[in-house]
Amino acid sequence: MTTVMTWREWAAHDATALAERVSQGDISATELAQQTQAAVEKINPHIGSVVELFDDAIAAPETDGTALDGPFRGVPFLMKDLGPGVKHRLQEQGSKFLQGYRASEDAFLTSQIRAAGLNIIGRTTTPEFGVCGSVENPAIYITRNPWNPHYTTFGSSAGACASVAAGVVPLAHATDGGGSIRIPAGSHGLIGLKSSRGVLSIAPALSDITGYVSTQGCVSRSVRDTARFIDSCRGGAPGEFMPYWESKQPYTEMIKRDPQPLRIAVSHEWGQYHADAHFVGELERTVRLLEELGHQVEWVTPSVNFEQAFTAQTTCYISNFAQFIQRMLEKRGLTAPPEDQIEPINLRIWQKGVNMSYSERWKMQDAFNTVSRDLGRFFQQWDVILTPTFAKPTPLLGEKKYLTLSDNPDVMDWFYTLWEIFSYTPLASLTGTAGISVPLAWQSSGIPLGMHFQTRQGNDGMLLQLAAQLERALGGSFNTNRMPQVHVSG
Predict the structure, then answer these.
(1) How far apart are CA 324 and CA 129, in angstroms?
(2) Do 72 and 112 form a contact (C-beta atoms < 8 A)?
(3) How far apart are CA 346 and CA 365, in angstroms?
C-alpha cells in the first residue's frame, strides 16, 4: 500500500501536526486514513490492538458526518470497543456474549468527536466489559505491550494505548472507571488524562448519577493533543443531571504557559498499599525534577479513609457491572448468563451484585460522599497529589489472578488483588476529581512507568499545564531516546 509519509515522519507527527498538514494542503484526510490502514496491517499481527477497521471511513473520511473542517481535519481515530456507541458499527466489548451487537445511534460524545474532525476508522481491544486490567482471552484476542510483547498492556483501554504507543495513530479514544485510561497509559509512555466528572458526557446510556465513576477521554503522545481533544469534545448532552465544568480559556492556550509554583503532596503509601521499591526511587527522581521547576513538594498522604474508599469502590463495580449484565440478559429473555459466553469472574460479579440491597448501595454512596469531602478539604491546602500511576511492576502475560478468566471463587478477594497493583487511580474515579498519568519514569523491565498527578474537580487545565511544563523541560517530547520494540518506524 502506498503511504504519504515515511514511517519515521508518521511517528514524528502528533494529531495536531497532522491536522496542520491537512490545513496547508500537503496531505489529505483520505491519505491519512490510508496510511493508518497500512500501519495497522504492519503492526497488528504483532500486538493485536485493533479489532476492526471501517473501510468506508478510510475511503471517504466524511462518512457519517465527520467534519473535515473541524480542529482535527480528518485525523484518523480509533474508538475503544466499549463506551460511546458508533452508529451501526459493532461494539462487542471483548465478550462472546455481545458478538454481533451494533449500536443503533451515535452517542453524544461520538457526535462531538465527529464534529471535532476526528475520523473514526476502527475499534480497539478491551477486556470483557472493561472489567480487568489486561486483554488476555485467547478465545477472543490477546493484546500485547509494544514496548515488550511478552508483557501485558494493562487495561482496560489496552488496544488504544498499544496502538498509540506503536505509532499506529497519534490519538485514540479511551475510557476510565478506576484507572482504565491512566494505568495503561502509564505502562505505554503516554499521556492519559481522566477528566473531572462533568467534563465529557457519558450520555445517553449513563449519566453522572448512574455511571458514578465512568469517564470518557483519550490517550495521546503529546499534551497538546489531549488538550485539543478536551477543548473540542467537552460539554454535557441535553438532560444531564448536573452542570458541566467550563474553562475561561481553551486548554490549548493554557498549556502554552507554565502553571504558578504548585504545592504538591507526594506519597506512595495509600492505606494498606505501597509501591515497589524501584518505583519509589523513580518517584523521588520525579520529585527532584518538580523542585527544579520551582514547585514545593512534600511527602504527605491525604487524610482519607482508604479502607472505606476501596470497599465503596468495590461495591460500586460489583453492583454496576451486575446490573449491566442483567440488562443484557433481560433484553435476550435470559434468566442467567450463559457460562460458555461470559468469563468466570464476570459471572461471579453478576451473582454477587444482581440482588444487592438498597441499604448496601446507600452505604456505598455515603462513603463516596465522606471520602470526597475529606479529599476536598485536603485540596484546600495542596494543589496536587503525586504518586506512581500503579504500585507494582507490569506483569508478564499469563498472570491469571488479574484476569476475569481467574478461577478465584471469591470475587471480593479478586478485586482486592487488583487494588494491590492498581492502588492509586481509583480515588480520583470515586471522587470525580481529575487525574493524569505522565510518562516520566521507567520500570526495571524497560516498560514505561507513569507518574500520576491528581487535583480537585474542575482543575483539569492546571494538570495539563503541569504536564506541558514537564514536557518542555524534557526537550519538547516524552520518551525521546527510547522506542517500543514493536513500532511503525522499526
Answers:
(1) 9
(2) no
(3) 23
Contact 89, 77 (CB under 8 A): no
pTM for the structure as a whole:
0.98
Classify residue 396 by its DSSP letter: B
Q: At 111, is the secondary structure helix, strand, or coil?
A: helix
What distance in Å separates the CA atoms of residue 26 and residue 2, rounded to the nearest whole number?
16
Q: Alpha-carbon distance 426 to 189, whole Å? A: 20
Q: Which helix (H) or strand (E) holds 451?
A: strand 448-455
Q: In this predicted model, what pLDDT tens digit does every residue of 25-55 receive, in sequence order?
A: 999 999 999 999 999 999 999 999 999 999 9
Q: How far apart are CA 325 and CA 127, in angstroms?
A: 15
3-state helix, strand, coil in the chain (%, to 5): 40, 15, 45
What's the rounded Cα separation, in Å, for the pair 28 and 46? 28
Q: Does residue 204 have a cis peptide bond before it, meaning omega lies within 30 degrees of 0?
A: yes
Looking up cell 452505604 gives: 363
Q: How far apart are CA 218 and CA 334, in angstroms?
A: 35
Looking at residue 479, what is its pLDDT?
A: 85
Q: How far apart are CA 259 and CA 461, in angstroms?
A: 10
Share of the chain above pLDDT 90, in %: 97
DSSP 143-160: ---TT-TTB---SSSHHH
Q: How confident is the model at residue 1 (pLDDT cuts 50, 70, 90)?
A: low
Alpha-carbon span 455 to 433, nearest angstrom: 6
DSSP code, position 393: P
Helix axes 460-473, 277-292, angle to 10 degrees: 90
Interatomic CA distance for residues 437 and 190, integer angstroms: 8
User: Which residue has 511527602 as its cell numbers?
Assistant: 299
Tell me the Ramachandran region of residue 115: left when phi exceeds 0, alpha when psi lies from -120 to 50, beta otherwise: alpha
Helix (H, G, I), strand (E, B) or coil at 387: strand
Find all residues with CB under 8 Å of 273, minimum gap 6, and list them: 306, 391, 419, 420, 423
